[in-house]
Structure formats: structure tokens, C-alpha cells
């Protein structure tokens, strides 16, 4: 009998028979230096900017600096196993990420790799993280509102679909909470939510995810995490990758809202990478292109014209200040790039006024054009009345007996301030916000003790659903209130306020 053919020989022969033979070009270089997440690579003369490079051990990075002799490669994986002298291969592809509906309800890293243990993601396509912003001819006016459910924002600094509004403030003043509340509020809208965590602590990211899962519609959210322990390269590409995932929905004619938390840490990562790749430092040691990296990112947020599908991408970038210094380099850059800013004040935060929005420094440069009509009518002169109250309050602290008109203003202003105070992760419906403004303007809350207004707010939504269902339905369907519906809402609130009114003093 002839000897039996070994299995390995059969397998090898089959592989050779199915292998296409022919010349193949391969771009190969070598690692000259590796440290702090940045590798200097030689021998890759045909590499282009942002091209993915693959190391012999399977790690990947991307070409960030193209010098004549060396390529500055920023690592996207752990660099602990990469050694000088190892081979590096050019892939011919720029950094790209998966996009599509398969990402909804998932937690991923900036390369689209799952972090939630729910298995692989079968994406519809892959797109580069760096994409040009839509040209002016393809854009439309920003006129549709984004309801955040935060009363102080929706009444004073209305946001529009396609707008870029900066949230800025000191450390631990509620910036992330305000942004997460805006994402939670989209559970009752058609807006897709994307939350990008850049350089954040694991505990902070976990709290944000828990809030979205428990209070929002997580099945229509994408969470991208590049935590403080992630490679600097992952932190650097995270905002761009998140923007690409959001643009997929905008380009399909849908609406998306992206929160980038935060760009101060992203700028610090950019400075770190720039210094390691030996780029010249500039103001506050940031490289000269730090303005450009954020400008080209946020310019991608837009409202597309009807010819392009009418989709929108709204951006809420977050930035951190030191001791309220808005004139620092990075906050100044971002303020000039965006369409307005919501400034959070640490003094207000520590006084218990949350959200701690400074109504004097905050602004929305799109303005009331995007505000829901029912809210624009109901809010009226709220900002002016509140500003006058704050000034009067300061003057009356020095003593003196104010007259009746000033006392009335102080009483009304104290109620406005209490109404604008709102618990976290409890966004209001549009009809509830309009009702609160109607109650303020009609003076219904003036006789109510300030400490009872929080209870009134908590009981308002059930009372409106019970006593004025037609008015609630009108606001939900049309965003408007006619005189009859307004009267029904005022009557329902009058009955509700009567249950919280102070009891009359007992006769002596």
C-alpha cells in the first residue's frame, strides 16, 4: 500500500492552488523610536496624512506628521509591546469608522470596536473620520427647535437644529449633566443622540451611561468612550469619529444631536501629541493649529437644504475653564467658533441654583428664531424681568425699605429664580415649560411660598394631563396654544396651586 498523504500536505497544496500568483508591492518601514504613544517610523516615503499603519504585532496607528526622513505615527493601541526595529506596514487607508443603525444602542471606542460585550457590530458602511463640512450652498436656515427639557435653556437660550452651542464652565459645575439632560429629552423626539467622552474618568462615563439607559431612549443613542486611560491617539480621533457617525444620519435626512465631552481635554491631548512629534508650541504651549482642529470639527454641524434631504446635525461641545476665565486660549477659540455659549457659574452652583447658568454671560446667537412658538409667546420678557430682579436684589441688600412696586418685582423675581431651578435628569415637556411661563406671567405663583414651587413643578404634568388634556394635545401636535387652550391650562394650574397655598393663620 502507498503511504498515506499527511493532512498538512493536503492543506498546503490546496492553499497554493487557490493563491493568485503575481507581483505585489508592500510598503514596509521600521520603528526608529517609540515612547508615550508616539512612534517615529522610517522607510515609508509614500505614506499620506492620517493613513493607518499596522505594526508587526498587530497594533495600529495613524500617520500624523510627515517629515522627509521620519513619520510621526500616533498609536491607536497599547504601545507597550512595540519595540524599536520592528517592521511597520502602510495600509493605504485613512482612519475610518463604521456607521449606520447597527451602532444605535451600543457603546464603542473611537474605532467603532464594541465595549459593551454585546458582540460584533455589523455596520452598513465605513467612512473616514475626516470629512469636509457641507458647503454653504447645501445648507439651510436654522429654524427648527431642539427642545432640551431644561427650562432656563429653552426659554432664554433656545437651540436650533443645526446649531453649535458651547457649554462652558469650571470643573464640577454641571456641564455634563446639562448635556445629558438634553440627550434624555430627545426620547420623545426624532433626534438621534451621540455622546462622545474624551479623557473622562470611568466613573463619570458610567454615570452618564446609566442616566441615558434609565431615563432616555438608549436604543436611539450611540456612546463613544475614549477615557482618560485610553491611548492619546484614541482620544484625539474620538470627536471626529463621533461626528462621522452622526453625519450618517444627517445625510439620510434624519436629525442628530452630538455632545463632545470635552474639547478642553481634546486640546490638551493635541498639545501632548504635538510636543511629542516635535511641533513648535505657541500660545499657552498649544500648537498653532489648535484653533483649526476644532473649527473644522464643529463646522461639520449643519442644517442641510431640502435638496440634500433636510437633515440636521446639532453640536453641544463642552469646554472647561479655570476660575471662570473665559478669556483663556481654548475657551476663546471655541466661543468664536460656535453660535453661542451657555456659561455655568461655580458661585451659583454652590448656592444650589442648578443648572447654574449665568444668564448675563450666556447667549444664543441664533436667538428666538428657533424657539417654539408657544414658548416664545409664554416666555415674553422673562430675561429682562429676571435681569432687573438680580440687580434690584443686589441694591436692596444694602438696606432701605423698597416701595410696593419694587417689592412686587422682588417677589416675582424670586419665583422666576426658583422656577428656573431644576433637578437633574428630569427634563420637562414643552407644554410643561409653557405652563410654567404662563403661571409666572399671570402672577399665579406670587402668593405661593418659594419652598413649595418645587412640589408644584413635580405635580404639574399629571395635573395638566388630567385637567387640560386637549391643550396638552394641541401643544404636542401643533406647538401652539389658542386662547381657549391657554385658559384651560391656567384654570388647571389655579386649581393645583390652591392645593399648595399656605393655610390661613388661626384666629387669636
Annotated CATH homologous superfamily of the largest domain: P-loop containing nucleotide triphosphate hydrolases
Going by CATH, the architecture of the largest domain would be: 3-Layer(aba) Sandwich
Distance between the termini: 122 Å
Q: Tell me the fraction of residues in β-strands, as a range.
A: 15-25%
CATH topology of the largest domain: Rossmann fold
- The geometry reads as elongated
Question: How many beta-strand elements?
Answer: 18
Number of helices: 16
What order do the helices and strands come in, and which of them pair?
Layout: H1 7-17, E1 28-35, E2 38-42, E3 51-55, E4 60-66, E5 71-75, E6 87-94, E7 96-99, E8 106-108, E9 125-128, E10 145-146, H2 151-156, E11 159-160, E12 166-169, H3 175-184, E13 191-198, H4 202-215, E14 221-226, H5 232-251, E15 255-261, H6 263-276, H7 290-298, E16 312-320, H8 329-337, E17 340-344, H9 346-350, E18 363-364, H10 373-379, H11 382-396, H12 404-420, H13 430-441, H14 453-467, H15 469-478, H16 483-500
Parallel strand pairs: 8-14, 12-16, 12-17, 13-14, 13-15, 15-16
Antiparallel strand pairs: 1-2, 1-6, 2-5, 3-4, 3-6, 4-5, 7-9, 10-11, 17-18
Helix pairs in contact: 3-4, 5-6, 7-8, 10-13, 11-12, 14-16, 15-16
